Automatic annotation (TrEMBL):
<dbReference type="GO" id="GO:0003677">
    <property type="term" value="F:DNA binding"/>
</dbReference>
<dbReference type="Pfam" id="PF01498">
    <property type="entry name" value="HTH_Tnp_Tc3_2"/>
</dbReference>
<feature type="domain" description="Transposase Tc1-like">
    <location>
        <begin position="75"/>
        <end position="135"/>
    </location>
</feature>
<dbReference type="GO" id="GO:0015074">
    <property type="term" value="P:DNA integration"/>
</dbReference>
<dbReference type="GO" id="GO:0006313">
    <property type="term" value="P:DNA transposition"/>
</dbReference>
<protein>
    <recommendedName>
        <fullName>Transposase Tc1-like domain-containing protein</fullName>
    </recommendedName>
</protein>
<dbReference type="InterPro" id="IPR002492">
    <property type="entry name" value="Transposase_Tc1-like"/>
</dbReference>
């Protein structure tokens, strides 16, 4: 259908779009007119404008996260211990770090450093010849 606007309900407004909306609303444009111009819903335009008038800024607020239990230096120490001795266990690292951390935290630091657990091979893999002989 020609003339039908594209609806992007579920995508978030970019910083550029927020600037445009605020500029148009400051210039006196109606919410409906701004929404048609930027191809967004009136609700999105209204919410953006309310944030601007209430907070004086259009930047989205950061969400609160759980605080990290270890510093960058302690993170490097955890990773270094794993690199120096790949057979070291988490409880040993936990006692060496000096900060009370759970083993899950140590596993997360390994994952952040792209380290994976190295399990010893239980049995040697069969060669194609051995597989044929077994069959």
């Amino acid at each position: 259908m020609p003339g039908r606007r594209v609806r992007r309900h579920f995508s978030q407004l970019s910083e550029f779009e927020r600037d445009i909306i605020i500029g148009m609303k400051t210039a006196g444009w109606s919410t409906r007119r701004v929404a048609r111009q930027v191809y967004r819903s009136e609700c999105a335009v209204r919410t953006c404008w309310e944030h601007w008038t209430r907070d004086g800024t259009h930047v989205r607020r950061t969400r609160s996260k759980a605080t990290r239990k270890t510093t960058r230096r302690e993170d490097r120490r955890i990773v270094r211990q794993a690199l120096v001795d790949p057979t070291v266990i988490r409880s040993t690292i936990q006692s060496d770090v000096g900060v009370r951390v759970v083993p899950q935290t140590i596993s997360r630091r390994f994952a952040e450093a792209n380290l994976q657990s190295k399990r010893p091979v239980r049995v040697l893999p069969l060669t194609p010849k051995h597989q044929r002989l077994r069959l």
